[in-house]
Each structure stands twice: as C-alpha cells, then as structure tokens.
Design brief:
The complex is a heterodimer of chains A (156) and B (330). By secondary structure, chain A is an alpha+beta fold. Chain A is 33% helix and 15% strand. In chain B, the strands form 3 sheets. Chain B has a 5-stranded antiparallel sheet. A 4-stranded antiparallel sheet of chain B has the order 9-10-11-12. Chain B has a 3-stranded parallel sheet with strand order 1-3-2, with helices on one face. The chains are: A alpha+beta (156), B alpha+beta (330). Chains A and B meet through strand 4, helix 3 and helix 4 of A and strand 1, helix 2 and helix 6 of B.
C-alpha cells in the first residue's frame, strides 16, 4: 500500500493520505473536507452516508477508501451544476422534504439513484426502494412526494 | 482503529496463495460484514485484508440446467438477472427483500453465504459470553434478549441465526458452492457448507483457511414450478427476518411434487426443511397437510424465553408460504 491514494470524486482528482484503515466516509469528511456526506449510525443501518460509486448508491461508512481507488465517487457536493441545484435537490426544497436535515444528503443521493434505477413508478415502490434511508423526523411523506413529482415529470 | 495491511488481489491464484500463507489474512469482498466487524465492532482483527472484490468472478451464465453465479457478483446484479426472475423467482424475491439497495450494490454473493451472524452478543466485543467469539465462554443470548435468535440447529451453546435471506431458496434448490484452494478446486453442496454449532459455534463452515468461493451454481426450478419467498419481520422493509420460508413445487392436479422448502430467521444455518418436504411430496395440497408438514419440521425446537413465540410463527410462515405457492388456502 502506498502512502497516498488518488480518488476520483465529483469529477476531480483528490489525494487521500493512507495512514491506516479508513472508510470512504471518514476520508470524505475528515481528510477532504467534503462534509456534506453525513455520518449517522456509522454501521450500515441508516443510509445517511449514501454516495454513488460508479453511479450506484452505496454506504460510504462500510466501504474502505482503498476499495474506491480508480472508481468515480459522487457526493452531494457533486450534484449541482454551475451553481444550480440538481432537480432532486430542487424537488426536496419545493416539497419541504426534510426537517433537521441530517439524513437529507443521503436521501437525495439515494433518490438520484432510485430514479436512475427506474424504481419510482408508485408510492409503494418508492417507499420500498428508499427504505435504506431512515428519517427520524418523519419527513417520509414529503420525500415520497418530491420523488413522485420527478418520476411523473420524467414519465416513469 | 485497528491496523491491518490492505492488499488488492490481482487474480484468484494469487489471492489464494497469499491468504493460505498468512494465518492472519481475511478476504474482503463487498465489505458489508467485515468492515463493520473490524472497524466498528472490534470483533475481528485480521492482520491482512485481501480485497478480492475486483477479481474476475463477476457475472452470471447458464451452464446446463443451472446458473453459474460468480462469487463477486453483487446481490443487485443477481436480482436483475432475467433467468433468475423467470426460472428461480424466489431467489430474486429473497434478494430484493434483503437489506437495502445500497447494501445490495455492495454485498457479493460469495460473501452473502459466509456472512456473520447479527447476534448482538457476538457483535458486541464488551460481552464476555459468546462461544462463537470466545470458545468456551458460554452464550449470553440464551438468558438474554433473544427475539431474533434461532430455534432450529440451536442449543445452549449458541442460538445465533444465520441471517441470509438468499441462502434460504439456495439451500432449497440444492445450490453448489465452488471453492478454490491452494491445492486445487472442489465443490460442496450449500447444505454442507455451513456447520451446525453444536459445542463449537466458532466453527461456522467447512472451508479451510485460504480457500475462496469462486462460483455458486444455482439449479433452475423445473419448468412449470411455482415458488415464493415469505419474510416475516418487525417492519415492512430493511429488516432481518423473524421467520422466513422459501417454497417451490410443481402442482400435478391437486398433488404437490418436486417440493422444496427452506427456512430462514429461525436456524443457526440456512435450513433445508426436509421433514416438511417428506410430508408434502406427493400429497394433496390442503391446509391440513401444510400444517402437518410445519408440525413435522418444528417437532423438536430449542427455545428460550425470547424465542418461544417463534415456533408457532415459523409454522404459520410455512403454512402461509405453501398457501401462496399452491393457491390452496382451505
């Protein structure tokens, strides 16, 4: 293992020091200052740390950063384009799909993937395939509404 | 945080050679079990982690009457396979009722078979009593909070559940596990991969140190077979099973043939319900027979205060699954 590793995050190259076992989540937050990705349970039970790796949603708390070498990581910071929020982010704002906001980055990353997977054809399907993202405030109805609106607009 | 050396394997032979030569080595596939147990729970402490996640063992192809599934295939990939959906649909159901999409994108099929138990007494390193973690120390769960624990294949030595959903239909169809070791390849039936805990719960499977699962053969159900996976749990999604049943059969008029039944959430290893199958095979499908099969399978459970309710729940799970798969509910 080398002392530093190159990561591809949000279309940019980042160097991560390797001074011991490190999860992707801790690399993002503690080493790269990308604190938009949140640490909830830190053991794969809540979904707050959801990011995309090679376009697929995963839990960054259960992934070693070394497993991500050479793969494309997308975090909440990588969604907006030219200062304009991603459509999922806009829909969450429109529908007030959060209260405290702690789970929101994970919810949004998961929703982006859900829409790409084509799993938003009904409220039941949205709930089932968003079930890996917990919201202690109980914003679920508004989260479902935000996703449903986007899915309808995309004709899914 | 415990230190370990991380090595990414370039090929199967290299991975096996490296692991075999290093008693402190552990394979890492998706990481959803190992990263948790290493870095969060402090329950396992390998000196070397050999990342096998990028080995060319990913993908699914039809070989004869079975699907050959590469061990590094993800759970989502297997669930998306059209032949799985059409010819072993209860495998797809079990996969999609497992964990969450995020975890299914990470977890690999080989790792799923070897996943460690969710027993809190095993996963909490501050608990002194766990025969699986510290052989001979006793079992904290037997006198503890045991709602999620096993009633089959269990004893006072260990009641930890093997929590895989996928394994339940896979034992039912007689899946075969292909293994690479330093001295060659071998295969074992999935029903023989896991070892009942008896008085050595720390021994969980028949693999030698350094052996690597490379493929899993999943035999297709007979044409015309029906199947279902029923999972009973405390919340509707993203939760482990209290009880589950994987049932497959062919109806010849009112008679059941080619009956396959597996149980999850109730046993220390993926449970093939052979006693129930013996009652059902060749019998007329009716509720009385379903109940007799369930009674036969649950004839000698090992229960503690926390798990007593699971005997009746498991029986009803079997009956409901059989009602669903036969379309007979009277």
């Amino acid at each position: 293992m080398t002392d530093a590793m190159l990561l591809h995050i949000n279309g940019q190259k980042w160097s991560v020091p390797l001074d011991g076992p490190l999860t992707l989540l801790d690399a993002l937050r503690e080493h790269l200052g990308l604190v938009g990705t949140k640490k909830g349970c830190d053991q794969g039970a809540c979904g707050a740390c959801t990011v995309l790796v090679d376009g697929q949603r995963v839990l960054s708390c259960l992934m070693l950063v070394a497993q991500c070498e050479g793969r494309e990581v997308t975090t909440i910071e990588g969604l907006s384009q030219g200062g304009r929020l991603h459509p999922v982010q806009q829909a969450f704002v429109r529908h007030d799909a959060f209260q405290c906001g702690y789970c929101t980055a994970g919810q949004i990353m998961s929703a982006v993937a859900l829409l790409a997977e084509g799993r938003a054809s009904s409220d039941d399907e949205i709930r089932e395939f968003m079930s890996g993202n917990l919201c202690r405030c109980g914003a679920y109805p508004n989260i479902v509404a935000a996703i449903r609106e986007l899915a309808a607009a995309e004709g899914r | 945080m415990p230190a370990f050396e991380y090595v990414r394997a370039a090929d199967v032979a290299g991975a096996v050679a490296m692991a075999t030569a290093d008693p402190g080595a552990s394979y890492l596939a998706g990481g959803t079990t190992l990263v948790d147990l290493m870095l969060k729970d402090g329950v396992v402490a390998p000196a070397t982690v050999i990342d096998v996640g990028r080995l060319p063992l990913r993908g699914i192809r039809l070989v004869g009457d079975a699907l050959r599934v590469g061990a590094m295939t993800t759970m989502e990939e297997l669930a998306a396979d059209p032949t799985v959906a059409s010819r072993v649909p209860f495998v797809r159901e079990a996969l999609l009722l497992s964990a969450s999409t995020q975890l299914r994108n990470m977890a690999r099929i080989g790792g799923n078979l070897l996943q460690r138990t969710r027993c809190r007494y095993f996963r909490d390193a501050t608990v002194a009593q766990c025969n699986k973690r510290i052989p001979g120390s006793g079992c904290g769960a037997v006198a503890g909070v045991a709602r999620m624990h096993a009633i089959l294949g269990a004893s006072e030595h260990c009641i930890a559940v093997h929590a895989s959903d996928l394994c339940v239909p896979l034992v039912a169809v007689d899946a075969v596990v292909h293994i690479q070791g330093r001295s060659g390849a071998r295969s074992v039936a999935l029903t023989d991969l896991h070892v009942p805990p008896r008085d050595r719960p720390d021994i969980e499977h028949v693999l030698e140190h350094g052996e690597l699962i490379t493929h899993v053969d999943v035999p297709l159900l007979p044409v015309g077979a029906r199947s279902t996976y029923l999972k009973v749990r405390d919340r509707a999604s993203y939760e482990f099973a209290l009880t589950s049943a994987a049932a497959a059969l062919v109806m010849r008029g009112a008679v059941m043939t080619h009956v396959r039944l597996g149980l999850g959430g109730v046993a220390t290893l993926p449970w093939r319900a052979r006693a129930a199958e013996a009652v059902l095979e060749g019998a007329r499908a009716d509720r009385h027979t379903f109940r007799a099969a369930a009674d036969a399978e649950l004839a000698a459970p090992y229960t503690v205060d926390g798990t007593r309710f699971k005997v009746e729940l498991a029986k009803r799970t079997i009956v409901r699954a059989l009602e669903t798969v036969t379309g007979v509910s009277s």
